[in-house]
Every structure is written in C-alpha cells, then in structure tokens.
Design goal:
The complex is a heterodimer of chains A (140) and B (237). Chain A is mainly alpha-helical and 140 residues long. Chain A is 79% helix and 0% strand. Chain A has helices at 9-31, 37-55, 57-67, 74-120, 123-132. In chain A, helix 1 (9-31) runs antiparallel to helix 2 (37-55), helix 2 (37-55) runs antiparallel to helix 4 and helix 3 (57-67) crosses helix 4. The chains are: A mainly alpha (140), B alpha/beta (237).
Chain lengths: 140, 237
C-alpha cells in the first residue's frame, strides 16, 4: 500500500466552510428568485460534492490514494471543483445558444408583424407619415 | 408565377436604390423585399422610395438572420420563386435569366450565380480567392457535386427551398452551410456563371482577422452539419 498523505485539518475546515458558503449563496439566490431552480441544480450538486470531500477527510485521503496523488490529497479537491466549474460553464454555453436562437426568431417575427401592421394602415395616413419624416431617420 | 426578390441590407443607402431599380427593370412583375438589418443610415427610407417593401429588424441579426426573415415572408405569403440579391450592387440582375430558367424548368431547387463557373475571372484579393476555393472544394466533397462558388449570395430558389430555409437557416455567413444543408435535405443544387461587379460603396462584411474566424466557424459548421442526419429538427415556424 502506498503511504498516502494526509489532508491537513485546517485545509479541511476552510474547504468545508467555503462549500457551505457556496450552498448558502445558491439557496439564497433561489429563495429570492434570482436563480431558477433549473439552472441552480448543477451548482447545488457542485456544493454538495465539495462539501462531502472537504468534511470527510478519510474519504479524500482514500480517493487521493487511489488516484496516485500521494503527497497532497487536497489537490483532488481542486481537480473535482475545476471539473464541476467546467461542467457549469459548458451548460451555460448551451443555455446562451438556445437563448440566442430564440432571440433571432423573436426579432424576425416582430419585424414581419410590424410590416403587416404598417401595411394595414390607410394609405393616406402612411404616405403622410413618410412625407413628414422626410429626408433620413428611420423610425426608431 | 408569384416571385419575390429578397435583398438583405445593412447600411447600404448608397447602393440599395440602384439595386431595386435594376431588379424592377429586369422583371417588372417581381415583388421586391428589402430586409433592413437594423441599419444606422437611410437604407430603409431609400428602399421605400424606390418602391420596395421593407422589413426593418429590431436589431442586427447578421446576414443569415436577415435573409431568413425574407424566406419566412416568402413562405408565409405563398411565393413560388425567390431571388436573392445582395444589397451592395455587386450582383447584376440582368444576369438572372439563366438562373431563373434552371429553377423554373425544374432542373434544380436552388441555382447559385457563380463567379468562377464561367471563363471570366473575378477580381478580388488573393487570400479571399483562396478562401473561397477551399470552401468550394470542401462543399463539393461533402455534396458529391462540383461547386465552384459556395459563398455567392446571388441565388434563385423554388418553393421547396424557400420552405426549408424559412424553417431553418444558418447564422452569420450562411451560404456555405446552406449548400450543405440543402444537400442533406435532398434539394438539388446547380450553378450558373455570372459576372459580379466591384462594389462601389460600403465594405465587405468579411475582412481582416474576421476572415480567419469566419473560415474556422464555417468549416466547423459544415463538417458537423454533414454529420447530422437531418440538419436541425425543423421548428414550427
């Protein structure tokens, strides 16, 4: 058996506190409706996993041993945190892409409706308007 | 046959009027639709004065989003033939005849006016020509068909193509991806040689460092696009 390193108590306490703080902030954001549950799930999962790995020192030492991280087990904590942050970012990229697509569709439909609306106006009125707004300036 | 000319335009106040006049001179029966992609100048106003119908987008969508707006309009109002012309005056509507013939006679669903299919070359910077060639080669490979100019926005499309592109059209700089998409949906592509004029006003939207981004993005899109079984699922439109 490889002589696994031990997680210093201070590191464990600090990481536990940070995980709890993360979970608290996420719950608070959900409670105040600034974060939808749907997008908070990954954050909650991140907080829980980090909390377990931070508080349960024996477990972290064990996992570090399996992975061959013999000198400094908290490195595993960083690696796990980094992976979760990457997952959250990727998730957000997909969310942004979807929003951008929907935004395009909305803009196109609004523009089509606008044309339909102006064409329904009595011709006298619309020609009068184009006279008034004479040289430049499209209506904003 | 009910036909529409779709002209995407962004800050083309200097050229748009001439484009509309030339289109109407070529075909007095055509309905001209200008899609004003949130221009800062008087593009929309000039277009209206020259008798075009104008759709003004609430904010800039890029050429793909603007052109698709035109296809949506064409699909909604039952047009059977769509003519796509750029708003900068590079395309000469007088050259439309052969393109229209190929589509109307049913030889193809989409006919693209190619700068390189004919004998006469197209004057442009060397890097730009190389880029256009690489894209054309790649698309030819993916569609198993010889295409010489996949970045041309001078096109004639029938009802099937209008409906497909109204429902789903690529973003940003769409022509290359659209060619692959059309092939995936079993639309028939064809090319006819055209001459293009030097642009007289405005600037190409693709230049400098942007063209590197453009090439990378388009290559990614067409390679992945060709791996999709059916482009994207058609949204309700």
């Amino acid at each position: 058996m490889i002589a696994a390193g031990q997680t210093p108590l201070a590191v464990s306490l600090a990481a536990t506190a940070a995980s709890l703080l993360l979970l608290f902030v996420v719950f608070e954001l959900i409670r105040s409706r600034r974060l939808r549950e749907r997008y908070a799930l990954l954050w909650v999962l991140t907080g829980l996993v980090l909390l377990v790995l931070s508080a349960w020192r024996g477990g972290l030492n064990q996992i570090a041993g399996w992975l061959g991280v013999s000198t400094y087990p908290p490195a595993v904590l960083f690696a796990v945190a980094l992976l979760f942050v990457l997952a959250v970012l990727l998730h957000y990229s997909t969310v942004i892409s979807k929003l951008a697509d929907q935004n395009v569709i909305l803009a196109q439909r609004v523009a089509l409706l606008e044309l339909e609306l102006t064409e329904r106006q009595p011709p006298a009125l619309s020609s009068l308007q184009s006279e008034v707004s004479a040289p430049v300036a499209p209506e904003s | 046959m009910k036909r529409i000319a779709i002209i995407p335009a962004f800050n083309e106040q200097g050229a748009i009027g001439g484009v509309i006049d030339e289109l109407v001179a070529f075909d007095p029966e055509v309905d001209v639709l200008v899609v004003d992609d949130a221009s800062h100048d008087a593009t929309a106003d000039r277009a209206r004065r020259h008798g075009a119908r104008v759709i003004t987008l609430p904010f800039n969508l890029g050429i793909g989003g603007a052109v698709q707006t035109g296809f949506r309009y064409a699909a909604q109002y039952g047009y059977e033939l769509a003519i796509r012309v750029d708003g900068d005056g590079q395309h000469d509507p007088g050259e439309l005849g052969p393109l229209i013939d190929i589509v109307v006679s049913g030889q193809a669903d989409v006919c693209v006016g190619s700068r390189f299919a004919g004998a006469e070359g197209y004057r442009s910077s060397a890097t730009r020509r190389v880029g256009i060639r690489i894209l054309a080669r790649t698309v030819s490979l993916l569609t198993a068909q010889r295409l010489t100019d996949t970045t041309s926005g001078f096109q004639v499309l029938n009802r099937r193509a209008i409906e497909l592109f109204a429902a789903d059209y690529p973003h940003d700089y769409p022509e290359v991806e659209a060619a692959v998409m059309a092939h995936k949906h079993r639309l028939r592509l064809a090319e006819a040689p055209v001459r293009m004029r030097e642009r007289t006003t405005g600037q190409s939207s693709i230049r400098g460092a942007l063209s590197v981004y453009y090439m990378a993005k388009v290559m990614l899109a067409i390679v992945i696009g060709s791996l999709r079984r059916k482009a994207t699922p058609l949204e309700d439109a």
